[in-house]
Design a protein that fits this description.
This protein is mainly beta. The protein has three helices and ten strands; from the N terminus they run ααββββββαββββ. It has a single domain, classed as Lipocalin, CATH 2.40.128.20.
């Protein structure tokens, strides 16, 4: 007597999932495109001069110098780890960032997390043309919203933010963070942080 094997809905789902996994497995898909020209130029060891502005029209405050290690992960996206240049300083911090070009949406994507203000910051550019990606031009990225627990004399201040990443020229690059207050009377955008990178020889 032959026995008929019956499979329930769960078994059918497992079989379907396995088939989809096989069809879309990394081994059978195309390799991702290489990192854009700008990201490739950003790789290396950098000295970083940091400045911040507490508000529109305020004087800049210089922060302790830092060093940044930027490396391309499998020639696809950039990882940056920034720390104080002097390891024995009391103002220790770690700022880790990832910079990527999404070949599906044609957008640059930037993510950072800083131990001095541990909130995830995400920015995206407008869709870019394929030709422009191959040129190491500056990039403008729009962010979302975050709340600073203390900013000047105020507390729990909500901001909208955006990021500007310049081209690399003569082994120098600028990354600037702009903030727009979303509370109070003055909603004028201002330059809040600036990182000036100089490539180490």
């Amino acid at each position: 007597m032959r026995r008929t094997m019956k499979f329930g809905p769960a078994a059918g789902f497992v079989a379907l999932a396995g088939a989809l996994w096989t069809a879309g497995s990394p081994a059978q898909s195309e390799s991702p495109p290489p990192a854009p020209a700008l990201l490739q130029q950003m790789e290396g060891q950098w000295l970083v001069a940091q400045r911040m502005w507490p508000g529109p029209g305020a004087d800049a405050v210089s922060l302790p110098p830092a060093v940044a290690n930027r490396r391309l992960i499998q020639n696809v996206f950039l990882e940056e780890v920034m720390e104080p240049a002097q390891k024995n300083t009391k103002d220790l911090f770690n700022r880790t960032a990832y910079f990527n070009f999404n070949s599906v949406s044609h957008q640059y994507e930037y993510f950072s997390l800083d131990s001095r203000l541990p909130q995830m910051m995400n920015e995206r550019s407008r869709p870019a043309e394929v030709k422009s990606v191959q040129s190491p031009n500056s990039i403008e990225l729009e962010g979302g919203h975050f709340v600073a627990p203390a900013w000047g004399k105020a507390t729990n201040v909500p901001f909208k933010y955006r990021l500007s990443v310049s081209e690399v020229r003569n082994d120098r690059q600028a990354v600037q963070l702009y903030l727009t207050p979303e509370s109070g009377r003055d909603h004028k955008e201002f330059l809040a942080f600036e990182y000036i990178y100089t490539r180490q020889r």
